[in-house]
Amino acid sequence: MNIGLVLSGGGARGAAHIGVIKALEEHNIFPTHIAGTSAGAIVGALYAAGVPWSEILIFFKTIPLFHTKRFARKKPGFLNSENFYDDLKTFLPKDSFEDLKKPLFIPAANIIDGTSKIFSKGQLIKPIIASASFPGVFTPTEINGKFYVDGGTLNNFPVEPLKNKCDKIIGVCVNPLKTVNMKDLRHSYSVIERAYKIKVAAESSNKFPDCDMVISPQELVNYSTFGMSNMEAIFNLGYTSTLTALKENEELVKRLSQT
Fold it and tell me: 20 to 30 Å CA-CA from 219: which of 105, 226, 230, 234?
């Protein structure tokens, strides 16, 4: 049986994906196909390469995201996305989709023509970086003469490439929509940000019916996209939420664990 795993974007909240993987493996569930956006692309790529969940967690905890060596110079963004290449090259030395142990699908948004592209073959690291390049913070990533940014801009929950390849699909969404009121929206930028979050949340939740099980911890609203100091708490939340979901889907778990 082919088991698909969809990993949404969500910045630092992506550490919850690692907790999900740990819980699945403890129940003898090993996804065969992975699709991931942004932080989900990073976790998905490392997992598809055979990196243990414990090492993926260390990677998330130790990568110096805002180190001065990463600042962009004369480029459209605060952080130069190219400076993350070597961090990933350590774990992905052959820099190739074909070298992975599991099929992987990574969406990124073309910042020029506004289209979404799903990468699944050829060079691997640049598509990962592109998919995780939050617009305005990270510089766009050039791939074959085209420039890409965060895959979540157009596809934050990439279930599409798995639908015709997998018998069962597990979805993980790590950016639930936070409850707010008007006093929280005091500035124009907060209204714009809220509108963007509503769009992303709606587009993701509309795809949940395509999955056989969805894990989306609401408690993640308490953690910010760039809250890098909360990795352990976010990881544990992903783990415990998955344990709860598995208990609620016992029949599905039996089928998945028999493969």
Answer: 105
